[in-house]
Amino acid sequence: MSDTVLSPALAVDADHHDHHHRHIGDVRDGGDDAALLLQSPEKGIPGDATITPDDDPVAVIEAALIRLKDDVGVLAEEDVVRAFSILQATDMPVFLRFRHAAKLANRDCSITVLDKLVRDELPGGGDDPSILDELVALARAQCQLHHDADRKAVAVIPSPDRQEVWRVYSTGFEEWLRSAYWRAKETGVPETTMKSALATIAAAGINDGKQIDIHVRAARDESGYLIDLCDEQWRAVRATPHGWQVLDHSPVHFTRTQSMRSLPEPERGGDIGLLWQHTNIPGNRRVMVLTWLLDSFRPDTPFPALELVGEQGSAKSTTQAVLRSLVDPNKVMLRGRPKTVEDIFVAAANNWLVSYENLSGLTAEQQDAFCTLSTGGGFASRQLYTNGEEHIMETKRPVVLNGIAVVATRPDLIDRVIHVDMPTIPPESRRDEADTSASWERDRPLVFGALLDLFADALRILPSVRLTHKQRMADYERFGEAVSRALGFEPGDFQRQYAELVRAGIDRALESNAVAQVLDKYFDERISPWNWQGTAGQLYDLLNNQIIPDRGTWPKSPKGLADQLRRIAPAYRAKGIEISHLGHSREGALWRISPIRFSTATPPGVEGGIRYGAHRE
C-alpha cells in the first residue's frame, strides 16, 4: 500500500485521526449530548454513498480545506459545519488545529461565521451571544481589518457611497462601532465591554489582516498628489501636471483624527489674488508663501517652516488661520506655546500641519524638534512608567509659527524657515472679525480651486527646472522656481529672492548668538582681515574678558566655546569666513578663523541682480 501524503498546511497528525475515530466510537456507545450530533438527519444511507460527517468528519474537513483555497463559501456548507461541530464536541484539540488550518488556507474566509454556525449546530448552542461576541462579529462582518507598517490595527469600512478608514484604537472607530451596534440592537455598550471588543478586533487586524499604507491629509501615488478633503463623503482631490479633480473614492487609504475639519470643495475659475485680501503678507513674500502652501501637500519632500513675525496689530494670527484653512483645517486652528518637546510630537501625530501662535521664545530642544519635523524623524519616551519599553512617534510635518519677536534663533532652524516680516495694519484699514470670517468662507472655495490650478501648473513646469546652486531646502527652492514661473515671473526670480532670504537668516542667526556677537566685535576692532589660529582655550580667554551682552547663554568652558564655534561655522562660511577645527595638539584643540578666498555662498547673479516686487495682480 502506498503512503498518503497530506499538504503541510492541511495535515493533521495521523495519530489524532486514529484517536478521533476511537473517540467517536466511544461517544456513540455513550449517551452524552455529543451523541445527538451523530444521529444523521437522513435514514437509510447506502453503504457505498459519499463519506458523510457522521462517518468521518476529519475526511470531510480535509477535503473542504482543499476547496477552501478558491471558495470561501466552503465553510458555510452544511456537511462542513456539521463536521466541525462533531469535532468540537468530541475532540477539541483536533477541532482547533483544523480551525487554524482554515485561516491559513484562505485569509479571506470568515472564521467568525464558521464559529457562529458551529455554535448553532451544537445542542444548546443557539443561545444569544454576548455583547462582546456581537461587537466583534459586527466589526468583522462590516469592516476589513488590517494593520499598518507599525502593526497598529486599521479598520477599512466600505459602503456604497464612501469608504471610511479608522485606526481601531481611535475615537472615530469606537463611535462608528457604537453607532453600528445601536442600529442593530438599539442599546448601548458598557465601557469595559467596548475595551475588550476593541482589543479583540485589533488582534484580528494585526494577525489575520494584511499590511496597508495609511496616510493623513496628503499622499502621493504614481500619477500625482492626493489631498484628503476630510468631508463626510470621504472624498479626495487628485492633482497632476494635467490638472486636478475631486474623487468620490480615494485610491489610497486616508485616515483622520476627530479634531480634523474639512477643506472646502474647490471651485474652478478662482483667483489666487483673493488670498491677499484676507491676509497681511507683504508683496515680496507672496510667492514664497504660495510655494509653502503647495509644498505642504508634497509629503515626499522636506517641509520648510513658515515664521510670521510682526508687532501687535499686524494680523499674524488671522493670517495664520487663513493659511491653515487651505491646508489642514482643525477644530483648534492655533495653539499656544508647547511646554515640552513631547507636546510638539504629539501635536504632529494628531495633525497634518503643526501650528503655534504668540510665541515669545522656544528652547533649544524645541527648536531642534521643529528641525526634526521639517526633514522627518522621531521622538522616543518610555511607554509606561512600569516597564522599560519605548513609545516612538515618527513623523514629518509642515510647521507654521508666529510671534512678535523672531522665534527661530538656532542656525539649524533658521536654515529651514521661511521668514515673513508682517507690516502693521493702520487703524483705518482694520476689519471686524465677523465680517472677515464671513467673507473668507465665501472666497475660500475659489481660492482653494485657484491654488490647485497653480499646483497643477507648477507640477507641469517642475521637471524643466534645473538649479546650478542650491540652498539648504533645495526641494522647496526648486519647487518655488516652478511656482514662480507658473505665475509669470522670469526664470531665476524666485531663486534670487530665496537667496536674499537665506542671507538675512544668516544675519539673524549670528545676531542672536552671544559668541558670534563677541567674536564680531573683537575681530573687527583688533584683526583685519580676520586671521587667527590657536587653541579653544586661548580663544576663550581672549573673548571671556570682553563685554558680553548675555552671560546666561555664554559658554562656561573652552569645550562649550568649541561647541558654539561648530554651530555658527556654517553661518560664517556663508559670509566668507571659515571657522575650522584643525585637530588636537599638546596645548589643546586647534582652531583657525580666516577668510575664504573664493566663496560659493551666494549664487551667481544675485549681487546687483533684479529683485522681483509685489505679486502681479
Name a few traits of the molecule.
42% helix, four-stranded antiparallel β-sheet, 20 helices, 617 residues, disordered C terminus
| N-to-C CA distance | 92 Å
Q: Radius of gyration in whole Å, from Cα?
A: 34 Å
Class from helix and strand fractions: alpha/beta
Task: Find the count of extended strands (DSSP E, 2+ residues).
Answer: 18
Sheet with most strands: 4 strands, antiparallel
Share of helix, binned: 40-55%
Q: Label the overall shape.
A: elongated
Q: Could you tell me the strand content as a percent range?
A: 5-15%
Strand order within the widest beta sheet? 5-6-7-8
Ranges where pLDDT stays below 50 over 5 or more residues in a row are: 1-48, 384-388, 598-617
Number of helices: 20
Mean pLDDT: 82
Q: Explain this structure to me?
A:
The chain is an alpha/beta fold. Helices cover 42% and strands 14% of the residues. It has 20 helices and 18 strands. A 4-stranded antiparallel β-sheet has the order 5-6-7-8. The protein has a 4-stranded parallel β-sheet with strand order 11-14-10-15, with helices on both faces. Helix 4 packs across helix 5 (92-105) and helix 12 (341-350) runs parallel beside helix 13 (364-375). The longest helix has 29 residues, at 433-461. The termini are far apart. 36% of the residues are buried.
